[in-house]
């Protein structure tokens, strides 16, 4: 019978592996289908808010990851044009005491490796590489076709296959991605020898019209992850494109000397074009549902990983209560999850507008940031970081 088959998960990224581990810990068999290998050597850094690290702890993964993480003491906000420091948001001990879990930064490859190790150790989880979903058939259960013609059956399907999701095309075929008119560039720098303020144990966020810059330590503090987002660029699929440094630097010609010097230190950049997706009419169709960027992608204005793992707990708890009725479980999951995910996406969009203000509005923003207390700035994210 269909309920005796495993839950199929398309995609072995952070979302897919987290989902599989969560289901496995609830005693639900899960099979993860990945189109390539399971190695994740490339990628940018990730900021994990307390809501994410709390869930990683519940999944038994956090202690494995800690040696590769960094715990920043604060977020420092700068005006990119003048170089003036505008505000400080306390993290470190302050955030951990406030939310009961740490705020951490790490490299995506390190996070992925820890999740993969946990998934491989879970008796209820199996991993299958070389499976590129080409078709979905829903009858009594779900049958998934591989591009090579082979098929696999499951009780249900969870699409964790990212921004360019194949499963989403089956759930909501009318949905279409649109180019957001911006490009994100990323690089890693050795942290040793960097000048202030880039050597500080903090997250740096630099704001200006049409561009912003983020940097923070990864690889246990040995490297600095740098992400620069600028308006324009070429529209292309994929998030590991070779980048032309001159196209990046052209977006920072008016920036202060300190910030430009950091960008000029990098020997190589990777880039990805930013796309947006209108709100889907539904995340689920029968015994098929979506999680993460397949359901509601966020541009890298607000770190995605802060929201990811919360959805995995929803899926696990709801599925455990209704293991033989996946379509009802998925509907309940969506109803519970959608309002919060939508709020985060809207917050990221609003912050993006604030980051890129110009003229008098930029000066008013800078003044307002300087007038707010450090704890008040952090307190506005209690709804995000404080959820358990």
Automatic annotation (TrEMBL):
From the UniProt record, which GO molecular function terms apply? FAD binding; monooxygenase activity
| Oxidoreductase as UniProt keyword | yes
Q: Which Pfam families match?
A: FAD_binding_3
Transmembrane spans: none
Q: What InterPro entries does the entry give?
A: FAD-bd (IPR002938), FAD-dep_Monooxygenase_BioMet (IPR050493), FAD/NAD-bd_sf (IPR036188)
UniProt keyword Oxidoreductase, yes or no: yes
Q: Which residues form the FAD-binding domain?
A: 5-295
Could you list this entry's UniProt keywords, alphabetically sorted. Answer: FAD, Flavoprotein, Monooxygenase, Oxidoreductase
Q: What is the designated name of this protein?
A: FAD-binding domain-containing protein
- Could you tell me which species this protein originates from? Methyloceanibacter marginalis
């Amino acid at each position: 019978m269909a309920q005796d088959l495993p839950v199929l998960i398309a995609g072995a990224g952070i979302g897919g592996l987290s989902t599989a581990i969560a289901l496995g810990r609830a005693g639900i068999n899960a099979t993860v289908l990945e189109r390539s290998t399971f190695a994740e050597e490339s990628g940018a850094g990730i900021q994990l808010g307390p809501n994410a690290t709390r869930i990683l702890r519940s999944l038994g993964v956090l202690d494995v990851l800690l040696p590769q993480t960094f715990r920043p003491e604060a977020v420092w906000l700068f005006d990119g044009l003048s170089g003036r420091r505008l505000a400080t948001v306390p993290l470190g001990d302050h955030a951990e005491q406030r939310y009961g879990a740490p705020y951490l930064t790490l490299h995506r490859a390190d996070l992925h490796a820890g999740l993969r190790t946990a998934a491989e150790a879970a008796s209820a989880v199996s991993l299958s590489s070389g499976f590129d979903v080409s078709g979905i058939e829903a009858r009594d259960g779900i049958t998934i076709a591989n591009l090579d013609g082979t098929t696999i059956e499951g009780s249900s399907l969870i699409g964790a296959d990212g921004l360019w999701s194949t499963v989403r095309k089956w759930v909501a075929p009318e949905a279409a991605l649109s180019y957001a008119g911006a490009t994100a560039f990323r690089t890693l720098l050795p942290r040793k020898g960097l000048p202030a303020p880039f050597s500080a144990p903090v997250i740096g966020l630099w704001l200006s019209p049409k561009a912003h810059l983020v940097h923070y330590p990864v690889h246990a503090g040995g490297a600095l992850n740098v992400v620069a987002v600028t308006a324009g660029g070429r529209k292309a699929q994929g998030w590991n494109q070779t980048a032309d440094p001159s196209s990046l630097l052209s977006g920072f010609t008016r920036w202060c000397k300190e910030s430009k010097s950091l960008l000029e230190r990098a020997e190589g950049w990777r880039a990805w074009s930013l796309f947006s997706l209108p709100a889907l009419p539904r995340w689920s169709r029968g015994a098929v549902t979506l999680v993460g960027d397949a359901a509601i992608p966020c541009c890298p204005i607000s770190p995605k990983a802060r929201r990811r793992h919360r959805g995995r707990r929803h899926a696990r708890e709801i599925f455990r209560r209704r293991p033989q009725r996946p379509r009802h479980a998925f509907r309940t999951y969506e109803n519970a999850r959608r309002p919060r995910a939508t709020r985060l996406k809207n917050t990221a969009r609003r912050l993006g507008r604030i980051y890129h203000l110009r003229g008098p509005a930029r000066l008013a923003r800078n003044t307002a940031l300087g007038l707010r207390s450090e704890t008040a700035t952090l307190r506005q994210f209690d709804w995000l970081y404080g959820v358990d």
